UniProtKB/TrEMBL annotation, chain A:
<feature type="transmembrane region" description="Helical">
    <location>
        <begin position="132"/>
        <end position="156"/>
    </location>
</feature>
<keyword id="KW-0472">Membrane</keyword>
<keyword id="KW-1133">Transmembrane helix</keyword>
<dbReference type="GO" id="GO:0005886">
    <property type="term" value="C:plasma membrane"/>
</dbReference>
<dbReference type="InterPro" id="IPR011865">
    <property type="entry name" value="CysT_permease"/>
</dbReference>
<feature type="transmembrane region" description="Helical">
    <location>
        <begin position="242"/>
        <end position="263"/>
    </location>
</feature>
<dbReference type="GO" id="GO:0015419">
    <property type="term" value="F:ABC-type sulfate transporter activity"/>
</dbReference>
TrEMBL record, chain B:
<dbReference type="Pfam" id="PF00005">
    <property type="entry name" value="ABC_tran"/>
</dbReference>
<dbReference type="Pfam" id="PF12857">
    <property type="entry name" value="TOBE_3"/>
</dbReference>
<protein>
    <submittedName>
        <fullName>Sulfate ABC transporter ATP-binding protein</fullName>
    </submittedName>
</protein>
<keyword id="KW-0547">Nucleotide-binding</keyword>
<dbReference type="InterPro" id="IPR003593">
    <property type="entry name" value="AAA+_ATPase"/>
</dbReference>
<dbReference type="InterPro" id="IPR024765">
    <property type="entry name" value="TOBE-like"/>
</dbReference>
<feature type="domain" description="ABC transporter">
    <location>
        <begin position="3"/>
        <end position="237"/>
    </location>
</feature>
TrEMBL record, chain C:
<keyword id="KW-0813">Transport</keyword>
<feature type="transmembrane region" description="Helical">
    <location>
        <begin position="31"/>
        <end position="54"/>
    </location>
</feature>
<keyword id="KW-1003">Cell membrane</keyword>
<dbReference type="InterPro" id="IPR035906">
    <property type="entry name" value="MetI-like_sf"/>
</dbReference>
<comment type="subunit">
    <text>The complex is composed of two ATP-binding proteins (CysA), two transmembrane proteins (CysT and CysW) and a solute-binding protein (CysP).</text>
</comment>
<dbReference type="InterPro" id="IPR011866">
    <property type="entry name" value="CysW_permease"/>
</dbReference>
<feature type="transmembrane region" description="Helical">
    <location>
        <begin position="74"/>
        <end position="100"/>
    </location>
</feature>
Amino acid sequence: MAATKTFRVLPGFKITLGFTLTYLSLIVLIPLAAVFIKTSELSLGQFWDVVTTPRVVATYKLSFGLSLVAAAINTVFGLMLAWALVRYSFPGKRIIDALVDLPFALPTAVAGIALTALYAKNGWIGQYFDAIGVKVAFGPLGVLVALVFIGLPFVVRTVQPILEDLDTELEEAAVSLGADRWQTFRFVILPILLPALLTGFALAFARAVGEYGSVIFIAGNIPMVSEITPLMIITKLEQYDYAGATAIAVVMLLLSFVLLLVINGLQAWTSKRTGRDR
Amino acid sequence: MSIQVKDIHKQFGSFVALDKVSLEFPTGELVALLGPSGCGKTTLLRIIAGLEQADSGQVLLEGEDASGTHVRERQVGFVFQHYALFRHMTVFDNVAFGMRMKPRAQRPSESQIRTKVHDLLQLVQLDWLADRFPAQLSGGQRQRIALARALAVEPRVLLLDEPFGALDAKVRKELRRWLRNLHDELHITSIFVTHDQEEALEVADRVVLMDHGKVEQIGTPEEVYRHPATPFVYSFLGSVNLFHGRIEDGTVQVGEDVLHDQPDAFRQGAEVIAFARPHELDIVVDGEVGKGVSARVNRVLSFGITARVELDGVNGSSGQHYEVELARSRVTELGLAEGQIVRLVPSRLKLFERQAASPQ
Amino acid sequence: MAGATTLHLGGDHAARFESRAATREAPWVKWLILGVSLTFFATFLLMPLIAVFVEAFRKGWGTYLTALSDPDALSAVRLTLTAALIAVPLNLVFGVCAAWAIAKFEFRGKQFLITLIDLPFSVSPVIAGLVWVLLFGAQGWFGGWLMANDLKVIFAVPGIVLATVFVTFPFVARELIPLMQAQGREEEEASVVLGANGFQTFWHVTLPNIKWGLMYGVILCNARAMGEFGAVSVVSGHIRGQTNTLPLHVEILYNEYQFAAAFAVASLLALLAIVTLVIKTWVENRAARALNLETAVSRLSIARKPDEHDVLGIGQTPAIR
């Protein structure tokens, strides 16, 4: 990180950057490096065995599969909610707008037990599913509910500002050229929103994959059925299988890094498409 | 196609944007709606397009009431002030948009669309930009693409909202000439909104002057410029000198000076406003006492073909500023010096009786 | 990953869209979108919040108060506050330093540095706990040395603090970097030219410009610090009265089938969340008002003078994001 310019008018560059790098290294980089170094105690074969045992593979399927589904659900309904919040006036709108951030503010453990109470078979919502023979809490469906809960604000909050910035002239232009409302949405509005929607999707997905607190209460944690990957790390740790726990952590970290790259790329695309940074 | 608006009234809260406006736009003409910010011109244009709904009144397109017709079905071409190009589409796709949105039965084939788009791009002389994105175009190019896009749906009317507003002075001038030529080629009934008098006078067949939601005057550029009908039009078009006076014994008195001695039919004692263009005033240095309004020479600018003299009012009209345009030879002849007291004599004067709503 | 947590000055745009023929949907479409999205909102966000309080009071005020005045609960409150009181100021100082270096100077690798700062947001909280076990646990790199010196990090307060610091690491920095970048460095340069030193410049020129963003970051950072569960759970060891934070206490009570007590403690945390959202909304309003633009714009878009639309730039939200 060499300076491109040695002459600086404003003071404090060296000390603030120095502190930033030191603190970043101590709190984030060195600890994360420990994960990779610890894993290297395993041979490649051992590593592969640990991360591909059937029980662990089942957790990947559940975690990644349901995270994708949850992110997709949030993309659709998050867009509708953002649309309603930006475009319509209705009573209670300001409160609802503020409450969209609830999953950011509410501790995950609290969300977990609250969702469990709601979706258990005698709960307010769970009873109706129970009546038609569907078990929500203590099964994969419960995991999905928790993942939808924690991912919702990501989509709403990435799409909302883009919707607010939309110039009314664009829609008026489309209409004056003969497009109907659906065509205007499909060919004019949606392409503008698309990068933001994908960013929101990726953010919600990334968050869902790593989520622990809100899921473990409602999941039931049945091996091969409703165990999530982060829980596997805890389970291994409780058995003092540090190398095993770390190996799974490596798989998750690598996925996180890939997602981070994807999200950065998407965000660059968003700003290009919407011209926000020009 | 002819457009008629009848008794259009539009209010935003307590703000009256259009106050019972009635107008007629004959077929094939290029008409300018001219007026200051907030005069209602853009609202009127948007109501004609169907983008805005009037509180009362009618819009007749070719004699037919279009008030209930959706923008989509009005077949109007609208060019937005900031062009509203779709930035995720190429120039080609932007121009093709309107044709592709048609119901399947009326939609031209893809090859027909291609031909049409290229024809239009040729018309606006930007054929070579078909594959670019709007962000890669200059302001003037965007403007022409927006126009091509509007023309692609073969509109019966073309409406342009401040078409040159967002361009720099040089491009603006070029495009003005270009739009005029294009109109002469296509002869499509067109209305454009502008707050720039020069633009309106230079480009339009006919100018509609608006202020405070009302039409002040309609006429050819020459008519409105040479014979302004109201004090507003007088002060809005071109630079003008203004005198506050009163009618006394058949003359117009400004302070203690006599400005003019042939007032039109005004009653004795009436308060009047008198307008004279800079070239309609002469300066006299040794004229008979009592004729012309006294003023003090402030600056003499004589670098153009004609010379401009800036003066300040004295006596009863102190605080007023005047501007006189004279032939250079006349200035030399007068030998004006700064601070000299002279008299202004109008060769032509327009008088209005002063009302509460008069300007200044 | 903080894209969704940055200060967002919305203002009400509905009037702008609802007043125009071209930007409205047919009424049935509008009601369908409203109906579906609000039902979704209610089932996934509103009802869980209500459920916490209903369950908390299910057995009456007596049980509620007993649960909260339990010594273990009180010690959990203390530990939660301690962790937040350490983690938030640390990350605040870091956030300001990082934002200053990144926003006010040019250097290579800046974008990469921003990505690294974001990293803890994309790491599972469980891994955020695991890393400290690997470093300071009994079998960790420094485990032997710690044991020899009779120091304890894992299954003790320091571990909880470290885990909390890790998960809340990016909050303040992420808030300030874009804000300070958007503001450029002209004002600071002017201040230096006028003879102010670095600290005076920051205090009198930079800080007033970023105070709302700063508060916003601190509030969110604090909420996460007090509510973190996964990371803390890994390093805590769940020793009652010693290494239990409030969220962990909720878990223990819940697993012991003391539901009313669990929800009573949870209601404290839910209250914290509500307070957080209230302050957050208030900060957003203040920030919008500080901009002044926003209010002027929304007022004008109601009493619109249409010819002035574009002159005044209605429809463009101020660029503080």
